[in-house]
């Protein structure tokens, strides 16, 4: 589920962006005129745990002061990127759009342009010996019944080789899916540990980048959806709050599809701002511009459905005129990016 660039004449893009900007400004003005409880969604000051990770970080895992997966402070001094890789090679269905060739293909591409630790030395660090996320980490986002149920059907998957685990059929499981999904989420939480540790001693900490599968942004709190098993970025966000006291989390989801699972996980939470750009009308049909959160979380969700044909100009305009101002108002303690 990659976001593929598509292009259209600048005039139609400009008109679409103008209409969107007008609607967003009216919505933000409406929310900022509400009570103090609603105003703090945008205006509350950063907490004492503000580490100013201005360039963004992706995902997180099990934290302890002696976590062997976390690089030492000396190792991160010169680092610009810390990355983790969890390819889930056993979670595979041949010829499926979400198969196990995806992460190796990305790694091959990074090798060719010399962007891995092999070529960049201390500037680029790969986390080794990743630990899986705990069941409690997963249950901070997903229903415990779903987590335990998925673990139980691994026996069935072992007997049949492959099973489908959601009602509509596209999300499959193999005998290794449960453990590899825990590792995918753990690869993300490990990055949160590393970036947070580096941020305590550096004003310019490295960015975290997780190359993981199964993907996660469609997985809803009650179960799987759209090839996604566990909500990796949502689990990372909750982990950042629970393990590190980072109260305010800003999540940017860019993908041709709406990140409905992450949207649903935090729809009533004022401390996690979820922002999604996606193609209007694409799968799963959610993410309308008037879906802005509920209850205490009203105003902390922003969906930006873009018309088909939107390209570089539209995306640059949205980032400059909508996403950056929203982040500045929200004043997050950490930024997570979900890249489909």
Topology:
Layout: H1 10-32, H2 36-43, H3 73-76, E1 81-86, H4 102-112, H5 117-120, E2 124-126, H6 135-139, H7 144-152, H8 154-160, E3 163-164, E4 172-173, H9 177-199, E5 207-212, H10 232-244, E6 249-254, H11 260-265, E7 272-279, E8 301-306, H12 312-330, E9 334-338
Parallel strand pairs: 1-2, 1-5, 6-7, 6-9, 7-8
Antiparallel strand pairs: 3-4
How would you state the average pLDDT, rounded?
83
Let me know the largest β-sheet: 4 strands, parallel
Computed CA radius of gyration, to the nearest angstrom: 20 Å
What is the number of helical segments per DSSP (H or I, 4+ residues)?
A: 12
Structural account:
There is one protein chain. The chain is of the alpha/beta class and 340 residues long. It has helices at 10-32, 36-43, 73-76, 102-112, 117-120, 135-139, 144-152, 154-160, 177-199, 232-244, 260-265, 312-330; strands spanning 81-86, 124-126, 163-164, 172-173, 207-212, 249-254, 272-279, 301-306, 334-338. Strands 8-7-6-9 form a four-stranded parallel sheet, sandwiched between helices. A three-stranded parallel sheet has the order 2-1-5, with helices on both faces. It has a two-stranded antiparallel ribbon with strand order 3-4. The chain is globular. Mean pLDDT is 83; it is low at 1-19 and 25-65.
